[in-house]
Write a structure and sequence with these properties.
By secondary structure, this protein is α+β, with helices and mostly antiparallel strands. It has a domain of 86 residues: ApbE-like superfamily (T-fold). A 9-stranded antiparallel sheet has the order 1-3-4-8-9-12-15-16-17, covered by helices on one side. A hairpin with a 2-residue loop joins β8 and β9. The protein is globular.
Amino acid sequence: MTSGVRSQKPEVRSQESGVRRKPILYSVFCILYPVSCILSLIILLLSLGCSKKPPSVLKRQQMLMGTIVEITAISSEEERANLAITAGFKEIRRLEEMMSTYIDESEISKVNREAGVEGVKVDQELFDVVKTSLKVSENTGGGFNIAVGPAIKLWDIGGEEHLPAENELEKIKPVIGYKEISLDEDGRKLFLKKTGMGIDLGGIAKGYAADRAEEIIKRLGIKDGIIAVAGDLKVFGKRPDKKPWKVGIKHPRKEGAILAEIELSDEAISTSGDYERYFIKDGVRYHHILDPVTLQPARECQSVTIIAKSGIMADAYATGIFVMGPEKGMELIERLPDIEGVIVDKDGKVHISSGLKGKVRIVGES
């Protein structure tokens, strides 16, 4: 994941960057009261009842982290809401400039360039995100692995869509181990022990960005809203009618259809699916979620949706559990505190964790 610092795309207002080099545009889906869906999560808002002074629903989008980022703020003070939304976008851009491997001068790019040479002192935030990544890697048995950077670059799903030969994959397997990432707590340094290694934070940075944007927006006085960064959604407060946010989980095999609905408040939800970025060759679907062991696309799930208190956890575990598969993945979900999930396996069967029984409503055929 290399390239020069990309120019910022202009903000898109009243219409409708994981961390990618080329933006991918996803269709916007609106139901009744218009708050749009990004990628795999569809926000369903019921029409509002009459009110003398209804709060304003302000919604804006920008291209950040290589994808559409949408921020919605509910407030009776339009100027305050707009300032908060702008601050939220600014925060996500700041993190992109720190964590994107497609920006040459980002801290993570500097760490990757020094692989096998020396450790690089980094910002405490980046250090902590990598530290969290390694913890999730341990919990998922390596299913989540930020050291897959060389494999992601080789496959280039969404770019040249290269189908690597087996000898190409074998060549890079020795530099894929997450245990070769060294953390120097005292010096706040990251060191990749082997030449050729490369960290990619695409499976965790967007969730963290949603968390940080929420903190900034709430600090500026907005109590209710949504931050949507591709398939990562952070909802806080409630809808204008004081009900929880109703979120739809996209059907992994039916374009524009919803598989299930759930109501959320002050939670994060993230979906990883094999339908997000993929190509089909000779009847085989090749998607962007790679198994760190085989370096091939993981095959046991069509989609995994994780609900957690934080976006960083929802994002990382959605990816890791997708790789683990439905059986081991659901076993892990049941063991972890404050983590729930919905897994659609390779055959389309829906698995729901015990904490979501009675809370998730299946609305589409699996």
